[in-house]
């Protein structure tokens, strides 16, 4: 699979914004640039796996991808927090 330079920039941007949003919602602060990107991209994978199975479709475009990724990242962070036992939700 070939990913162009523009596609890579869009993926990193969506991951950064989604990870930052998830960090604000779940923890109250971000995780740094690299952490936000990783959390956001992982959240996008979670959302792309989970949402079609639930029949959820938010639309197309950059904003919907950020929302998808942010919701997936929030779910991911909540599951990690539950598994680690690091506190309340």
Key terms for this structure?
membrane; mainly alpha
List the helices and strands and how they pair.
Blueprint: H1 5-26, H2 32-54, H3 62-84
Helix pairs in contact: 1-2, 1-3, 2-3
Q: Quick one: biggest sheet? A: none
- Quaternary status: single chain
Helical element count?
Answer: 3
- Which shape, going by the Cα principal axes? globular
Number of strands: 0
Low-pLDDT stretches: none
Terminal residue distance: 38 Å
Helix share of residues?
over 70%
Radius of gyration: 13 Å
- Give the mean pLDDT: 82
Query: From N to C, what is the helix and strand string?
Result: HHH
Look at the helices and sheets and give the structural class.
mainly alpha
- Indicate the proportion of strand residues: under 5%
Organism: Bradyrhizobium huanghuaihaiense
InterPro entries: Transgly_assoc
Keywords: Cell membrane, Membrane, Transmembrane, Transmembrane helix
Subcellular location: Cell membrane
